[in-house]
Amino acid sequence: MLTFLARIPAMFLRNLSAALLGCALLAAPASAIAAGRGPSTPEERKQALDYIRDLQANPLGPQALDERRWMLKWLAEIPDVSVHLCGITLDGLPKVDKKDTALVIFAQLISQAAFLIQNPDRQDDLLAQYQAGVEGELQVYEVLLKSNPKDRQPYLDDLIQRREAGTLAQWVKERAAVTQGCLK
């Protein structure tokens, strides 16, 4: 019973992350229009990169929930960092309510955002964005495994092997080509 009670905060964070991600993605265009604000500021971009680095290194940390909320709100409001999510890894991941899937998916979002902030001239390079997103997913997955090695996901383990073999970029390109809505 104590083990179950100790896991409640983690389960809540995972489900809340999934709900926040879904709401932000659905509301992003309307929110950006309603906000009527200009592009992000250099200070906001720096803050976003700081939060992204922290979330990638410590996705379950004490500040993680507040950082995720800030990132979702900020990405929904600003017009100059538009993350184009592609579900190239979704078919191999467990359902969002299983293990840490929501955190891994969120890592894709913020990793693509970091790529766009750091490479503003590559807004139209969807494959590079997707590559950054998958790399971010794997980074967070590896961090999560350190705290719970039993939560291995064969699909993500395979992607790590592809990364180590130097074939992940080709996999991303092939998956993006066959996943609906990924390439314009």
What does this structure look like?
With 184 residues, the protein is mainly α. It has one domain. The chain has 7 helices and no strands.
Kindly report how far apart the N and C termini lie: 50 Å
Described by strand count, sense and barrel closure, the largest sheet is:
none
SSE string, helix = H, strand = E?
HHHHHHH
Provide the helix percentage. Answer: 55-70%
The pLDDT mean sits at: 82
Number of discrete domains: 1
CA-atom Rg in angstroms: 16 Å
Low-confidence stretches: 1-17, 30-34
Number of strands: 0
Q: What would you call the structural class? A: mainly alpha
Assembly context of the chains: single chain
Shape by Cα distribution? globular
Number of helices: 7
Please report which band the strand proportion falls in: under 5%, 5-15%, 15-25%, 25-35%, 35-45% or over 45%: under 5%
Provide keyphrases for this structure.
mainly alpha, globular
Sequence-ordered SSE layout with sheet pairings:
Elements: H1 2-35, H2 42-57, H3 64-77, H4 101-118, H5 126-147, H6 154-165, H7 168-178
Provide a concise account of the structure shown.
This protein is mostly helical and 184 residues long. Helix content is 69%, strand content 0%.
